[in-house]
Amino acid sequence: MAAVAIYSIATLTFTDASAAFASPLIADMIQPVPAQTSDETVSGASDAAVETVADAETAPQQIDTQSAQPPLRAESLTQLVAMHDLPADIDEETRCLAGAVYFESKGETLNGQLAVAKVVIARRDSGRFASSLCGVVYQPSQFSFVRGGRMPAIPTASRDWAEAVAIAQIAMKDAWESPVEGALFFHARHVSPGWRMQRLAAVDNHVFYR
After folding, report:
1. 159-172 vs 110-126: helix axis angle to the nearest 10?
2. Mean pLDDT of 88-109
3. Could you report the per-residue pLDDT of 161-187, keeping only the tens digit for each?
4. What are phi and psi for residue 201, nearest 5 degrees?
5. CA–CA separation, 60 vs 56, rounded Å?
6. Domains defined for the chain, CATH in brackets
7. Beta bridge pairs of residue 188
8. The pTM is what?
9. pLDDT of the residue at 86
10. Helix, strand or coil for residue 202?
């Protein structure tokens, strides 16, 4: 009887001890891990966004070296003319100047055509002739190709016309110098009008004076 009692006590003691030993272990296993609060999550994302914006603001900007290149400069009048495409619409002043170039110097070198254009522009700027390019071209008794206040029809699909328009544009922009800068008059080489003016240069079929 005593033995039975001792066994029961021992069993009870062992059971209580196991429970006492297991309790802290179980407690450790089910210990809740503190969850990250929504405030902490938003704060972290916000900080990352701020850092990204800051990096974008402080990072050196990429420079497009292609668009930063200066425009090409022509090495010759021929190259400069080639850089001018015939526009679909031509304003009246350009058309008048190109018409003078076409009828007075068609078939001449580009320098010869430019010289004629320079004279028309110099007349406009001189104060001694009309104040517009069309006014200079259509001024009575100045250009033989103008008859009855009109310019003859021009084959606008021709290469000669395209060159004349390009020369007119170049002259109007003063994009190329000519040896006849400031000339107000010119005549064909085969005539001798006996003008008492300063002779500037002879270019192709014309002699230019100021």
Report:
1. 40
2. 98
3. 999 999 999 999 999 999 999 999 999
4. -170, 160
5. 8
6. 77-209 (1.10.10.2520)
7. 206
8. 0.66
9. 96
10. strand
